[in-house]
C-alpha cells in the first residue's frame, strides 16, 4: 500500500500532485491511500515512489505522460470538498481509468462518474445554501464595526464560497466562522483561519430583529408550500437563522386566513448593510425573479435555476443559441441525452433531422435561434442509458420564464414550435399538432407562431414510406415558416 499525506481535508493541489505521481508510478487504486495530516498541518508525499522526474523511474508504460480533460480537474476540485471519507480514492480511481478511457467523464451512466457527479452536485448545492443562509451579526472591535456569521455547511465549501461574500460585502469587515475553518475579509484581503465554534460568534443584535421582521413581512401565507420551503431552507439550517424562530408561528397562523398577509413594515437598521443584503438575496436565490437583461443573463439564470426539480439530474441547463436578433425562433421540447452533455440544443439525432430539413427548406440554421421549452433533460436511468421522459405541464410552466425571456430579448418575427410540448409552452394549451400545423397562430404577446411536428416523431415512424411522407410535410412546414419571415 502506498500512502500520500495531504495537508488538509480540502488539499486539492496536494491530492493532484500525489495522484499524478502515483498514476505515473503505476500504483493501482487498490494499492493507493490518501490520508490527511494531523493538526500540525504537515502534509507532503511520503511512502510513494514520487519523483520530480517521473520519466526516470518505472517501466515503459508507467513513464508515459498523460493529460486529463479540464472537465475532470473541475470535477475533482468540487468532489474533494465533499465530506465523504473516500472522495480522494474515488477521484484517483477515475484518474487511473482516464488514460485508457479518455472520454470516461462523459459516460454519465458509469458508476464512478455518476457517483462523482452526484457528489459534485451536493457540494455545489451546499455552496448555494451557504450563499442563501449565512446571516451576519453586527459586532464592534478595536477597528470599528465588523460583521460575524456562524454557519455549518453540509460540505467543506467555506473557501470556495467566501469570494461570493467578498463581492457582495466589499466595503464591510466580516468573518464567517464554521466548524471546518473561518473566512475573514478586512475590506482588502480575504484570508482563511482555523475551525471555530458557535460560541465565538455573537448571538443577538438588532439585525436579528430586522431579519425577523423582514421575513415576516415577505411571508405570504397564500403561497405557503411547506415542502418547497423546507427544500429551500432545510431544517438543519434553521437553528442558525434568526427568522427561523418565526416559521412555526407563521405557518400555524396562515391556516384559514390566507388573505391576511403579515404586513409589518421592515425597519432598516443599517442602510448600507440592507443594500448589500438586497443584492445578496437577488444573487443567492437562483429563482429570484430578476428579469434577464440579455441572453448572457438568461444563460446564467438557467444554470442556477431551481424553479423545478429537473436541474438535479441534468448535467447542465441547455439554453437557446443563435443570433440575438434572429427572425426565426425554433422551440423544441427539451434537451436530449447528447444535448445535456454538450450544453447545446439539437445536436443529437433529432437535431440532425432538423438540420437536414432546414437545409432542404432553404433555411440556414445559423440564422435561426434554436431553443427548447424546457431547459433541463428529464430522463430516467435504464441500465447504462438515460431514457427521455416528457416534461409535465408544471415543468413546462416553470421553464416558461426562460422561454419568455428569450422571446422578449430576441423578438423573432416567427416562433416555430416543434411538437406538443413546445406548443403547450407557447399557447398555454396542449395543441392538436397534426390538425393545427403549418398555420400562422397569434401568440399571447401578439407575435406570430406556428406549429409543426417534432423531428423525433419522424425518427419514431415505423416504415420508410411513412417516414419520407412525414419528412416531406415537415420540410413543407419549414418552407412555410421561411415565407412568413420574408
Ligand atoms: N429534442 C428537443 O426537443 N430538443 C433538443 O434540443 C434535442 C432533442
TrEMBL record:
Residue ranges annotated for the Uracil-DNA glycosylase-like domain, each copy included: 319-479
Family annotation (CDD domains): UDG-F4_TTUDGA_SPO1dp_like
Gene3D superfamilies: Uracil-DNA glycosylase-like domain (3.40.470.10)
Superkingdom of the organism of origin: Bacteria
Gene Ontology MF terms: 4 iron, 4 sulfur cluster binding; deaminated base DNA N-glycosylase activity; metal ion binding; nucleotidyltransferase activity
UniProt record, GO biological process: DNA repair
InterPro entries, alphabetized: DNA_repair_put (IPR023875), DUF4130 (IPR025404), UDG_Type-4/5 (IPR051536), Ura-DNA_glyco_family4 (IPR005273), Uracil-DNA_glycosylase-like (IPR005122), Uracil-DNA_glycosylase-like_sf (IPR036895)
Alphabetical UniProt keywords: 4Fe-4S, DNA damage, DNA repair, Hydrolase, Iron, Iron-sulfur, Metal-binding, Nucleotidyltransferase, Transferase
Xref: NCBIfam families: SAM_7_link_chp, UDG_fam4, UDG_fam_dom
Similarity comment: Belongs to the uracil-DNA glycosylase (UDG) superfamily. Type 4 (UDGa) family.
Protein name (record): Type-4 uracil-DNA glycosylase
Organism: Brevundimonas mediterranea
Amino acid at each position: 500500500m502506498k500512502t500520500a499525506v495531504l495537508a488538509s481535508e480540502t488539499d486539492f493541489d496536494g491530492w493532484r500532485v500525489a495522484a499524478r505521481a502515483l498514476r505515473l508510478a503505476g500504483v493501482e487504486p487498490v494499492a493507493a491511500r490518501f490520508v490527511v495530516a494531523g493538526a500540525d498541518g504537515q502534509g507532503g508525499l511520503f511512502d510513494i515512489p514520487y519523483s520530480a522526474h517521473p520519466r526516470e523511474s518505472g517501466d515503459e508504460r508507467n513513464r508515459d505522460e498523460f493529460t486529463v480533460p479540464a472537465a475532470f480537474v473541475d470535477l475533482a476540485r468540487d468532489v474533494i470538498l465533499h465530506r465523504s471519507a473516500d472522495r480522494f480514492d474515488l477521484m484517483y480511481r477515475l484518474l487511473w481509468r482516464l488514460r485508457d478511457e479518455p472520454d470516461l467523464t462523459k459516460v454519465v451512466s458509469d458508476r464512478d462518474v455518476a457517483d462523482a457527479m452526484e457528489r459534485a452536485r451536493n457540494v455545489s448545492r451546499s455552496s448555494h445554501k451557504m450563499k442563501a443562509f449565512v446571516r451576519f451579526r453586527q459586532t464592534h472591535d478595536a477597528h470599528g464595526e465588523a460583521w460575524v456569521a456562524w454557519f455549518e455547511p453540509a460540505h467543506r465549501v467555506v473557501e470556495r464560497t467566501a469570494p461570493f461574500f467578498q463581492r457582495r460585502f466589499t466595503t464591510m469587515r466580516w468573518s464567517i466562522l464554521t466548524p471546518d475553518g473561518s473566512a475573514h475579509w478586512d475590506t482588502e484581503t480575504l484570508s482563511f483561519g482555523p475551525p471555530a465554534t458557535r460560541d465565538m460568534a455573537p448571538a443577538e443584535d438588532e439585525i436579528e430583529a430586522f431579519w425577523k421582521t423582514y421575513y415576516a413581512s415577505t411571508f405570504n401565507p397564500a403561497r405557503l408550500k411547506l415542502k418547497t420551503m423546507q427544500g429551500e431552507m432545510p431544517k438543519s439550517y434553521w437553528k442558525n437563522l434568526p427568522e427561523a424562530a418565526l416559521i412555526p408561528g407563521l405557518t400555524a397562523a396562515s391556516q384559514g386566513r390566507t388573505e391576511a398577509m403579515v404586513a409589518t413594515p421592515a425597519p432598516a437598521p443599517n442602510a448600507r448593510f440592507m443594500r448589500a443584503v438586497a443584492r445578496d438575496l437577488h444573487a443567492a436565490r437562483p429563482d429570484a425573479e430578476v428579469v434577464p437583461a440579455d441572453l448572457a443573463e438568461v444563460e446564467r439564470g438557467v444554470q442556477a435555476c431551481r424553479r423545478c426539480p429537473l436541474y438535479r439530474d441534468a448535467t447542465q441547463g441547455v439554453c437557446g443559441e443563435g443570433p440575438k436578433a434572429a427572425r426565426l425562433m425554433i422551440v423544441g421540447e427539451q434537451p436530449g441525452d447528447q444535448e445535456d452533455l454538450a450544453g447545446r440544443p439539437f445536436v443529437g439525432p433529432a437535431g440532425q433531422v432538423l438540420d437536414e430539413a432546414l437545409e432542404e427548406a432553404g433555411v440556414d440554421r445559423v440564422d435561426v435561434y434554436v431553443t427548447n421549452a424546457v431547459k433541463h433533460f428529464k430522463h430516467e436511468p435504464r441500465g447504462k442509458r438515460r431514457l427521455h421522459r416528457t416534461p409535465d405541464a408544471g415543468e413546462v410552466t416553470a421553464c416558461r420564464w426562460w422561454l419568455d425571456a428569450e422571446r422578449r430579448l430576441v423578438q423573432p418575427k416567427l416562433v416555430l414550435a416543434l411538437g406538443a410540448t413546445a406548443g403547450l409552452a407557447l399557447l398555454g394549451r396542449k395543441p392538436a399538432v397534426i390538425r393545427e400545423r403549418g398555420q400562422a397562430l397569434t401568440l399571447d404577446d401578439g407575435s406570430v407562431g406556428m406549429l409543426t411536428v417534432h423531428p423525433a416523431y419522424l425518427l419514431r415512424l415505423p416504415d420508410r414510406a411513412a417516414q419520407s411522407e412525414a419528412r416531406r410535410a415537415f420540410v413543407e412546414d419549414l418552407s412555410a415558416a421561411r415565407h412568413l419571415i420574408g
